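Lecture notes, continued. The same structure-token format from the folding unit now serves as the input rather than the output. Read the line below as a description of shape only.
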């Protein structure tokens, strides 16, 4: 495909992470050769049925250039989400960047909750129990692996 716009003007290092169950944070860096006045705009769509929406809460750098977006109330669907970042400058055309992302792959899980430890000195054993962390996506039956790090004092 032929991309309109100046080479090296599209954003770089686009990454997103989902945390605290329903918050998503996406960040990027300005294109290496983008003019100084370039402003970037992020649009996304959670599934094919949805309308494309612009970011509502941009993260800005010291020059008021949009360098990221904070999303609230994100729900993870079955389809890949579509992200598009385009830019504008009064000097030249800016290339766009787009990517499809499986949101469940970028979710940072919460720690397990309600951890209890019951030790019996006579039997010389301990029972450690916890509740599975909340996750935002629908596949609630996934296996979780836990590392338990026990330090004796």
């Amino acid at each position: 495909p032929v991309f309109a716009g100046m080479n090296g003007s599209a954003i770089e290092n686009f990454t997103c992470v989902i945390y605290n169950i329903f918050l998503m944070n996406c960040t990027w860096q300005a294109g290496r050769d983008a003019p100084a006045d370039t402003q970037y705009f992020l649009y996304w769509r959670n599934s094919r049925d949805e309308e494309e929406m612009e970011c509502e809460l941009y993260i800005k750098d010291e020059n008021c250039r949009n360098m990221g977006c904070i999303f609230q109330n994100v729900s993870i669907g079955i389809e890949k989400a579509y992200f598009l970042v385009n830019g504008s400058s009064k000097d030249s055309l800016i290339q766009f960047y787009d990517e499809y992302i499986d949101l469940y792959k970028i979710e940072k899980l919460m720690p397990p909750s309600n951890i209890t430890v019951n030790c019996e000195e006579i039997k010389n054993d301990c029972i450690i129990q916890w509740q599975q962390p909340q996750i935002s996506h629908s596949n609630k039956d996934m296996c979780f692996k836990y590392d338990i790090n026990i330090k004796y004092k």
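Point for the exam: The mean pLDDT is 88.
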